[in-house]
Design goal:
CATH superfamily: Thiolase/Chalcone synthase
Number of helices: 14
Bound molecules: acetoacetyl-coenzyme A
Strand content: 15-25%
Number of domains: 1
Domain Hydroxymethylglutaryl-coenzyme A synthase C-terminal: 176-270, 289-390
Helix content: 25-40%
InterPro entries: HMG_CoA_synt_C_dom, HMG_CoA_synth_N, Thiolase-like
Family: Belongs to the thiolase-like superfamily. HMG-CoA synthase family.
Structural class: alpha+beta
Shape: globular
Keywords: Transferase
Radius of gyration: 20 Å
Domain Hydroxymethylglutaryl-coenzyme A synthase N-terminal: 3-169
Number of strands: 17
CATH class: Alpha Beta
Length: 417
Amino acid sequence: MKKRVGIEALAVAVPRRYVDIEDLARARGVDPAKFTAGLGAKEMAINDPGEDSVSLAATAAARLIKQQGVDTSKVGMLVVGTETGVDHSKPIASHVHGLLKLPRSMRTFDSQHACYGGTAGLMAAVEWIASGAGAGRTALVVCTDIARYGLKTAGEPTQGGGAVALLVSETPDLLAMDVGLNGVCTSDVYDFWRPVGRREALVDGHYSITCYLDAMAGAYRGWRERAMEQGLVRWDSKLPSEQLARILYHVPFCKMARKAHAQVRLCDLEDAAGPGSVPAEARDEAAKSQASYDAQVAKSLGLNARVGNVYTASLYLALAGQLHAEGAALANQRVGLLSYGSGCCAEFYSGVVGEKAAERMARADLDTVLAKRERVSVEEYERLMNLPYDAPEAIAPEPGTFRLAEIHEHRRKYAGA
Ligand code: CAA
C-alpha cells in the first residue's frame, strides 16, 4: 500500500514590526490604491538586522516543536529553503539544528532555488518518507526569507519577511500529498536574481510576471495530465482546475495570485475541446472569472496581504492562511498548490486536507503571532533598512524567539528562546 505522506503541522514566525502599505504609498507620492487594489497589499513586514533569516527560521521551528509537541528524537531530516543565505558554506540548517539542540543523527542541508527552494526541500522530505528511506522518521522543512528590493524602487511595496516551519510525516493532518502527480517546468531566465555580495535583489519586474505565468502553465499542464490519468480530474462541465476545492499560489504580492489563477483557467479553457469549450474571443474574460477567484483563491491571501513577500515561505504562508480561514470546511477536500522560483522553476502539486487541520491550525495561534507586531512609521522603516546588516541592535529577544546577537570574527551568535 502507498504510504500517506504530507504536512502534519506548521508554525509561522514574522518580524516584530511592519509598515502600513498606505503610509508607504503616501510617503512615496503614489496613489495608495496602486499598492492596495493594484498589488493587493495591506501591510509589509520589516525586519531589523537582529531578525535575520536564521533567527526567523529557528523561531518558526522552535514554535512548531513547542506548539505541536513534536518528538524531536524522531526527526531525521532538517531542510531549510531560503534565498537569504548568510554564508556561502555553513547552512542555515546547521544553525537551526544547534539552536534547537536537535539530535545529531539527522541529515541537515539548505535548499536554494529562489522562491522555489522551500518546495524543493519539501519534496525531498516527502519523497524520502514516501520511499521508505525515512524508516518511520519525520522531517522538518523550514522556509525562511527576507524580501528586499531597496528604498524607492518599483519592488519596494512587495518586500516582506518571515519563516514557515513544516513538519512532514506519515500523519499528514494538514495536507496528505498526492505523491507522483507533480508537474514541473524549468527555463534559464534572468527575471529576478541577487548576485553574491548584494543585499538587495535585482528584478526585471514585468518580465518576472511573464516568466512566472509561462512556467506555471507548463507545471499545471503536467500535473493535470497525471491527475487525469489517475481519475482525480476530468474534462467535464466543470474545468479540471475547478474540480480542486482551492488553489494556493506563490504570492510575491497578492494580485499575482489573481493573475496566476486566470492563467490556470486559461490553460484549461485553451485545452478544452468539444461541447464545453469556450470560443477563443470569450476565453480571456472566462479566465478572469471573479466568481472562480473568490471561491478558489481569495481566502488564502489573508496572511500574505499582512506580511508581504516571504519568497520561499510565501506559498506556505498562503497554505497557513487558507487552513486558518477554512481548515474545518476543507477537510477531505483536494487543493492544488503552485510554487514558483525565479531563474526559473515552477511546480504544481496537490494534496487532500486532513480532518485534523482546524485543530492543528488552532495550535499555531496565527492571530496572536500577527497581533503582537508593532506598526512603525515610514521614517522608522527607512532607519531599519539603512542599518548595517552585521551590527544588530542590542534588543532582548521576546520569549520563545531568537535574535542575532553579534557577528564576531565572522561567526554569528544568537540569543533567545
Ligand atoms: N489604482 C489601482 N490600481 C492601480 C493604480 C491605481 N491608482 N495604479 C496602478 N495600478 C495597478 C496597475 O494597473 C497594475 O495592475 P495590473 O498588473 O493588474 O495591470 C498594478 O497596479 C501594478 O502597477 P504597475 O505594473 O504599473 O507597477 P510597477 O511597474 O510599479 O511594479 C511590480 C509592479 C512589477 C510587481 C513591482 O512591484 C516589482 O518589480 N516587484 C518585484 C518583482 C515581483 O514580485 N515579481 C513577481 C513575479 S517573480 C516571483 O514571483 C518571484 C518572487 O517572489 C520575486
